[in-house]
Specification:
Layout (H helix, E strand, L loop, with lengths): L21 H14 L13 E4 L3 E7 L8 E6 L2 E8 L17 E8 L10 E5 L2 E7 L15
Antiparallel strand pairs: 1-2, 2-7, 3-4, 4-5, 6-7
Amino acid sequence: MATQTYLPSIFNGAFGTRNPFADFRGFNDELNRLFNTRRATTSHYPAFNIYSNDEETVVVAPLPGFKAEDIDISVERNRLTLSGSREKELAEGEQYHRRERFSGEFKRSLTLPFAVDEKQVEAKFSDGVLEIKLPRAAEDKPKKIAIKSA
């Protein structure tokens, strides 16, 4: 039975299937968390769930603690951009003991699988979850071609 490895074949045998660098990654993550040097980046925040069919694409993004007025959505052809900001939650004279929730500004863009009808886009924000429905543009929908027989 073959085993899966995470490393190039030159490392097989010396480390087996264990990745020796995984411990370093975990250590680095802890240091970043401890010193608050890692911030949410445009490629990581917010997380998206995206699903589509022939008629539309739906993007769902959890944004706990945000208000609808803190979020901006823009669509151009097949490009969705989501941006927003949330201020720190500290009162005067307080300081963080530990901070794991996002604060500050974010901007995230993604390319959709087809052109969007910008006039029909709908967004709903409820219980900290943003849902964006992006209908496919009529000119981008597949056309059925009738075959004529001779």
